[in-house]
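Q: Hi! Curious about what Mitochondrial glycoprotein family protein looks like structurally. Here's the sequence.
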Amino acid sequence: MVFALCIRRSASRLASLARTQAISSAVVVNRSSLVRNTSSPLRPFVSRSLLYSTSTSERLKSDQTLIQVIDSEIKDAFEEADVQREEETTGSGDFPFKIEDKPGHRTVTLTREYNGEQIRVEVSMPGSMDEHEDDVDDNEDGRNEKANETSIPLVVTVTKKSGLSLEFSCTAFPDEILIDGLSVNHPEKSSSSEEEQLAYDGPDFQELDENMRKSFHKFLEARGIKPSVTDFMYEYMMKKDSREYLLWLKNLKNFIQE
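A: Let's find out. The predicted structure is below.
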């Protein structure tokens, strides 16, 4: 009888141990199946975490590659700037204008006073005439011959003491300055866009009498708008273009690094 009791106790312990092992195995299987089982409610969270980690890694890698390319461009721009400093061009003694150059702007302003008049010249970056004029008449004042030449656009404003001003739109080439148009501006004139669109700016400059056109060229030359000045400004604007490009690269790099 004692022997039978021992057998029953042993059997009970074995059964209890078997149940414990079965539960442990089930827990292990269920935990490992979280990743493999696509129907698991935790599966989306696991996938999103892996995708986010991969996406972040790829973004950082692409950003680093871009920064390396920008650094290479900055190095080249610095070298070009050093060469330009060695070849620094100074204005001739008869350069009559004060230069206003603001970093980050694509234009430079020249100012001077001439016999009570205020002369203001807005100089833009160099480019070919095709970049500034979409439609060029092949028979218009030889412009077809200069379509591919490098030039700088100018807006010259001559203002009297009364506030009345004459505005010239010009294109400066190495050997000459072309007047593209001119308009008379009144100080009391409304500055609204609608008024500007309705205002009469005068006839096309090339339609004016030849003597009148020549007289206007002399008018500008007397006020300092002549090839010696525009040639200097061409070199100046080329250097400014390099400086602005370098500044743009630095700003671009700062953005990528943030």
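A: A fun detail: Residues 98-238 form a domain with the Mitochondrial Matrix Protein; Chain A fold (CATH 3.10.280.10).
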